[in-house]
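COMPLEX REQUEST
Ligand: zinc ion
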Amino acid sequence: MSENIESLLQARGIKPTAMRMLILKNMLDFSRAFSLADLEAVMETADKSTIFRTITLFHEKQLIHSIDDGSGAVKYSVCNSNCYCSIDDTHAHFYCLHCHKTFCLEKVAVPDINIPDKLIPVSINLVIKGFCENCTKFAT
Ligand SMILES: [Zn+2]
Ligand SMILES: [Zn+2]
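STATUS: Structure written out below.
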């Protein structure tokens, strides 16, 4: 597992320090998208500014992608190894209105959207809101 984590970092041109490997391991342990606060909560002993700087670095190197789910806190999720965060790589996300968790819908591509010719799209944020499988009983 740690070899895998090391190679994930190297594949994105990130030097695999012990702290970066530990942070990536914690990121991969989330089965959903995580916020800075989520990561701080599971890494109580780690320095908060180090966690923040590492998230910023991972994001710049496209190891993780960010999701604005409208909750006010930016969420992140680890990219697939073949993802380069281009619009073609973008998938939809699902935000649960009850438990406030956000999930990647990796198999749901963002549909082709026709925008006026003179506009240059850089990213698309498609968030579907509703109730996740654990919260269906709250759907009305
Ligand atoms: Zn839920
Ligand atoms: Zn995602």
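REMARKS: The chain has one domain: 2-138. The beta strands are 34-35, 64-67, 75-78, 91-96, 102-109, 127-130.
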